[in-house]
Amino acid sequence: MIALPIKLLWRSWRAGALQLVAGALLLAVAVVTSVSLLADRVQLALTEQSATFLAADLVVRGPHEPPSDWAEWASQVELRTARTASFNSMVYAGDEMHLAAVKAVDAGYPLRGEVVISQQPFSQLQSDWQAVGRGPQVGEAWVDSRLLPLLDVELGDTIEVGATQLKITQVVVTEPDRGGSFSLFGARVLMHYADLQAAAVIQPGSRVSYRFLMAGESGSLAALQAQLAADFEQRADQHWKIITPDSAEASIADTVDRGRKFLLLAGSVGVILAGIALALASRQFADRQLAQVALFKCWGLRSFEVRRFYLVQVSLLAIVGTALGLLLGWLFHTALLAVLADYLPAELPAASLQPWLVGIATGVLSLLGFALPALWHLPQLSALAVLRSEITGSPMTTAVRLFIGGAVAVLLLYGYSGNLWITLGMVAALTAVAVFIGTLAWLFLAVLRRFFSQLGGLWRMAAANLWRQRLQSQLQMLGFAAAIALLLVMAVVRGSLIEEWRWQLADDAPNHFLVNVAPYELEPVKALLAERGLESAGWFSMVRGRLIEINGAPPPADLKERHESLNRELNLSWSATLPENNQLVAGEWWQADTPVSDGPVPMSIEVELAEELGLSLGDFVTFSLGGLRFEAQLVNTRSLRWESMTPNFYFLFPEGVLEDFPRSGITSLHIPASEKMVINDLLRRYPTVVVIELDKVIAQIQSVVYQVTQGLQMMTGMILLCGVLILYAGVALSMPARLQQSALLRTLGSSRRAVLQLQAIEFALLGGVAGLVAALAAELTLVIIAQQLFAGSPQIHPWIWLAGPLGGALLVSFLGVAYSARSVGLPPLQLLRQLNR
Amino acid sequence: MTILQAQQLTKQVSVSGSSLNILNAVDLALERGESLAIVGASGSGKSTLLGLLAGLDLPTSGSVSLAGEEITALSEDQRAALRERHVGFVFQSFQLLPSLTALENVALPLELRGDTGAELAAAQFLERVGLSERLAHYPSQLSGGEQQRVALARAFASRAEILFADEPTGNLDTVTGRAIDELLFEMNQEQGTTLVLVTHEHGLAERCGKQITLDAGSVVARR
């Protein structure tokens, strides 16, 4: 009893009764698989790319030289390794000297990414650059361009590092693990690890950051990571810290994470849309099965046999549909990759198993949740009732089917995003959409009927038709409006992502920081910048201090070991108002005119740091500033936008507290490539000023952002396809009733043109109202998304209110008329006869 | 040998709280190979009686014995099994499946029973009803009369002992209807089938060996 269901399934396909169901299933699996494959591979690539920010896949950082065991362990599991040591040291050339940020690297460095070098100091021309997969040779030094004017030397000259002399052979434009860290105040000097001993710059007690770099296959990495963690435990050594690409760079990680969230959101929307299309198509398929089931019953098939019959069909559909869906998903994703070729790395890592499993689960669960409920009642049907046309619908109530479909949707969303909050957010939004649409559609239909009854003719008939079948109209609007709303949401979310990144991508985004500008240098530096036509993002003052006590006691030893900020000087600043790009998380901002002389000094801390230090509102923290102690009380916490590229501070105080301590100025500004030599002039005149060049880092961020946004654009297109499928399924489902009316009208003498006009008006009204409702629902969803995903304030999007109704009316009427035009053209008798079967 | 017997067959439905008698204490008996016409005005209960006799529905009271089995004592599945062995149907609206060709429509009940050579048998019956040229045609490509011929071929192909026909010519014009009548009785004769048919048509009813007339659910005339 397997051959016959398969045979009949094939016959249904041949007769065109299965295309919608199969199409919806295929598209559901294909969209999910392609989105999933793309997200998976891009994410792996991004992780790999952020590995280049580490110059490795995995790094262990600590204050001592890494034990030699580690390299042995790594080679046992076939991992490549490298060592680096970073420290600040005076470098000399003749009478000139500079406190440089020295990095010694061994022959293995870098394991990921490349070092970019140049023979042309300060050149911004990529043609002058050269990317190499190694560091300097023994006896060589590669240095920042700005070190050359500072030491008054040129390429080929010699500098002294400790007791050894190194020849400057290259200017280093960037190295992969340079990062944007503000601790690198000095100019970079890259040297060979083997020269360290001769240089003898590292003495017991020197502050050196050693890094042990590893790269290779992910299983081996995980194994070694576990082995290292156990080793730290055994040594009771908490100085070592494991750094993964995810934790490598806060701002990069943030960008990657945001891209991933959006990819997941896009995928989830695809799941829901395809599910709705599948549910609608399945209902139509079930309606077409009624006569067949009635005949089966008349011919003596028992209920369980009918059930088995359809289970075989559904299973076959699941297997074939899912398999083809996976194939189509693969093709979709390769097409996407082809379009994105310019933005993606040439060699993307192979996808993991997960996207395929997600695709398969989607196919099976979609059929179970969206298709099977529509077919479930078939075995129970009374043959007599069907033959007498007494039953046409499904005894499984809409509420039950909605519940099952909803439960499966939640399951899929969760399985797909792996994020409970995104899942709940989507579910809440969709529930809101459903309730809103149900209510609003009813209201609009009532208004339409009243309003159009005064117009007469086809308009009145169209509105009356919609009202008479209001339950059905409401259901269709639910489908249409959900699709339109999701499309609107997609468009806005994608837009606001790009908007949010725009200033980061803007040509004039700050790309340099000026730090350590003494008060007496401030005016001349400003004047120099003004002279060159450079605008800064505003000047901030800061003082340096150490955090020495928390609530009257020194920080616990383990916290101190874990947290670097307790071991070095911190940048403290002040502001009367909450700075731009800062958002209050807890507590109150101080009043501008509050006198600070009474009671403890209020203080604001960046929220994540406060959590890491275990501080809550009301706690007291004691700082040491140049030997002077002062106590402050935590009154609020803030979140920061590090990617804003303007000076941000972990610790902020009100005005009138820190002004008397030795302070320095900091600002960020955009220096175009053509004006890059201003750094040279600035450093010659004010050697203590530190310039942090972020232009290379920003370029790296930009390339990541471009990749992600381009991918999203394609994905929005694919989800639009799902939306169209829903509209199509909805139109097809309502078609028999519409055609019956058309046939009657034509029998009564209406022209084909008039009937088509009526159809067009009816569909346009349906689509228009659905679009209007969708605009409202989209706006509400965006409020939630704006708050949850982007931490921004909600705003009204006027274009939604135009695009929703207009787009809905045009799209639905076009689809509807296109679908019904051929049938309406048939002679009325033939049409009626077809409908009666 | 009595193949179909009904005793005191009554069907009540409840309509907005009050119960309505659709059939009222109907008695009838039919020997193997006999034919019975159930006539009466619209709403007199003809189709309800047919449904009860075929085991598609259960009476409120009374009994039906089909091929020696008391169907009111059987479960739905047992009744289905009984229908599979003994019963065939012809419907007013043909009930051909639009996605199947004429040949496939006729073969379907045989395939469901697991008959090998279903298509061969179907082709033979289609030839018998004069449609050997239309085997691969879909119902939408056939006229009403042709569709009912396909339905007749399907009903007889399953070699049922007792055939229930609900207004088999109700949807056809007079000339076509007559031709279908002819075919129905010819094939009935050839196969020795017991025939129960519901009809409006006086002429068709006259051709049956027995006839009962229903009015408001009660038998008002018997021949």
What would you note in describing this structure?
Chain A has 837 residues and is α+β, with helices and mostly antiparallel strands. Chain A has 23 helices and 21 strands. In chain A, the strands form 2 sheets. Chain A has a 6-stranded mixed β-barrel. In chain A, helix 14 packs across helix 21, helix 15 (470-505) crosses helix 21 (752-788) and helix 20 (695-747) runs antiparallel to helix 21. Chain A is elongated. Helix content of chain B is 35%, strand content 30%. In chain B, strand 9 (210-215) and strand 10 form a beta hairpin. The longest helix of chain B is centred in the last third of the chain and has 18 residues, at 174-191. The model of chain B has no long low-confidence stretch (mean pLDDT 88).
Question: Which helices and strands, and how do they pair?
Answer:
The complex is a heterodimer of chains A (837) and B (223).
Chain A: H1 3-14, H2 19-54, E1 58-62, H3 68-76, E2 80-93, E3 96-105, E4 115-118, E5 129-132, E6 140-143, H4 147-151, E7 158-161, E8 164-174, E9 188-192, H5 196-199, E10 209-215, H6 218-235, E11 241-243, H7 245-248, H8 250-298, H9 303-339, H10 354-375, H11 383-387, H12 398-417, H13 420-452, H14 457-468, H15 470-505, E12 512-517, H16 519-531, E13 540-550, H17 557-562, E14 570-574, E15 582-587, E16 601-606, H18 607-612, E17 620-625, E18 628-640, E19 651-653, E20 664-669, H19 678-685, E21 690-693, H20 695-747, H21 752-788, H22 798-824, H23 828-836
Parallel strand pairs in A: 3-9, 6-8, 14-19, 16-18
Antiparallel strand pairs in A: 1-10, 1-11, 2-3, 2-7, 2-10, 4-5, 4-8, 6-9, 7-8, 12-20, 12-21, 13-14, 13-17, 13-20, 15-18, 16-19, 17-18
Chain B: E1 2-15, E2 18-31, E3 35-40, H1 46-53, E4 61-66, E5 69-70, H2 76-86, E6 87-90, H3 102-113, H4 118-128, H5 144-157, E7 162-166, H6 174-191, E8 194-198, H7 202-206, E9 210-215, E10 218-222
Parallel strand pairs in B: 3-8, 3-9, 6-7, 7-8
Antiparallel strand pairs in B: 1-2, 1-4, 4-5, 9-10
